[in-house]
Design goal:
mainly alpha; Fumarase C, Chain B, domain 1; two-stranded antiparallel ribbon; elongated
């Protein structure tokens, strides 16, 4: 198939073309329908600008609907015949409509095509990550409110036993964390909600494109005005999206680390249901928490993608082919992150807690802070109380975890988890997401 940019008398070297195309044909399968949507909006804009007539507009829009249906039914394949999804869609329209199909690319470049398709992809990805983060927050809140939520467990600093805590306090931490992650994802989702379509190769075109129409038609919140900035924003917006998704993934990593410890025989606080466990190929006795371990590793592709994009973006203004390299790391990282986030809420719901093991791990010296504060309340200066308790830890024997938890009355602590306030925040988030 002749390439859309190929000039007469120019031979194309297959090895060079393979290098130039890279992974685009494979990666663009994730952008194909977004490009179809953007093409439909652009066609409407061309008719409004007088470039094509109503009959041509309707024919092209109809053919784009057919192409979308064929794609979803698996009858249209994006393969090595094409450079990318953009050239595939254009070739399809030309093959079906002839001259009308050849008019579709008027006023646009593959530069703004990939920008708008990626921008639509990012909007959906951020919305999905936000919804999944809220699901994890909800699952954590359910755990905090459950019967086991009141169970005492050790609280740790430096991985050393520190003070008594509770399952509810541990769970409420993830409720607030993933709620905050959802807030950030929503904010970045609004920030990237800008339409670059119509900026062409970065300098505009001599066609009065109705960019306000395409902005509304594609559901964008605003239009990117300056064509040079639209090109310069490629990678910039992707980095912001990765950063926001990365915050959720960092929380997944920390949660998975806790579970990696809690499920060991040495801790024994948590059991995983069989569906979250694999076995060893050589040791018949092994039950491996592979799901938790791979969740612990799931931030790595996001961090790697951020590093790749930062290296690629050491460029002057305007479009450069280097920017093609942003697509692969972005889509791999986002896809992996969404897959990981989708597992976490169900995992939290499935955890089986061993209350006896957690209680048994609370040793008497962990009540030292409680006694120091009690002495301070009776008039002993805190530093004096601190030293007195440190010198006589044996006097702490006989205290109970429940008394320690009940005495912790500062807002957000064990006897004042403020779960209703956390739930109210989630409700606001969920209502905003439904608009």
């Amino acid at each position: 198939m002749k390439l859309i940019w190929q000039k007469e008398g120019v031979d194309v070297d297959g090895r060079i073309m393979t290098f130039l195309a890279g992974e685009d044909v494979v990666l663009d399968r994730g952008l194909f329908l977004y490009d179809v949507r953007a093409s439909a909006a652009h066609v409407e804009g061309l008719e409004r600008a007088g470039v094509i007539d109503v009959t041509e507009r309707d024919a092209i829009l109809g053919e784009l609907q057919v192409l979308e249906a064929e794609w979803e039914a698996g009858r249209f394949e994006l393969d090595a015949r094409y450079e990318d999804c953009h050239s595939a869609i254009e070739a399809h329209l030309i093959s079906r409509l002839g001259a009308a199909g050849k008019k579709v690319h008027t006023g646009r470049s593959r530069n703004d095509q990939v920008l708008v398709a990626t921008r639509l992809y990012l909007k959906d990805a951020l919305a999905q990550a936000r919804a999944l983060s809220l699901e994890i927050a909800r699952a954590s809140l359910r755990l905090a409110r459950s019967e086991v939520g009141g169970a005492p467990m050790p609280g740790y600093t430096h991985l050393q036993r520190a003070v008594p805590s509770s399952v509810g306090m541990w769970a409420a931490a993830w409720t607030e964390a993933f709620g905050d992650d959802a807030t950030l994802l929503g904010a970045i989702g609004g920030w990237v909600d800008a339409n670059p379509l119509g900026t062409a190769a970065g300098y505009g075109v001599n066609v009065p494109l109705d960019r306000e129409h395409t902005t509304a038609r594609l559901g964008f919140g605003r239009m990117q005005i300056n064509p040079i900035y639209a090109q310069n924003s490629r990678g910039k917006f992707e980095l912001a999206a990765l950063g926001a998704i990365g915050q959720s993934m960092l929380d997944v990593r920390r949660l998975a680390w806790d579970l990696s410890l809690f499920t060991t025989a040495e801790f024994g606080f948590v059991r995983l249901p069989p569906r979250y466990i694999t076995g060893s190929s050589i040791m018949p006795n092994k039950k491996n928490p592979d799901v938790v371990e791979l969740l612990r590793a799931a931030y790595a592709p996001v961090a790697g993608a951020e590093a790749e994009l930062k290296q690629l973006l050491s460029l002057p203004s305007g479009y450069h082919r280097d920017l093609q390299g942003t697509k692969g790391p972005l889509m791999r990282a986002v896809g992996h992150a969404l897959g990981a986030l989708a597992l976490v809420a169900d995992l939290i719901d499935a955890l089986e807690w061993d209350q006896d093991a957690m209680r048994g791990a609370i040793s008497h010296e962990m009540y030292a802070t409680d006694l120091a504060v009690e002495l301070t309340a009776s008039g002993v200066p805190f530093r004096e109380a601190y030293q007195r308790v440190a010198d006589e830890l044996g006097q702490l024997a006989g205290r109970s975890p429940e008394d320690s938890l009940e005495a912790r009355v500062s807002p957000g602590s064990c006897s004042a988890l403020m779960l209703d306030a956390l739930e109210a925040r989630l409700k606001v988030q969920e209502d905003e997401g439904g608009e």
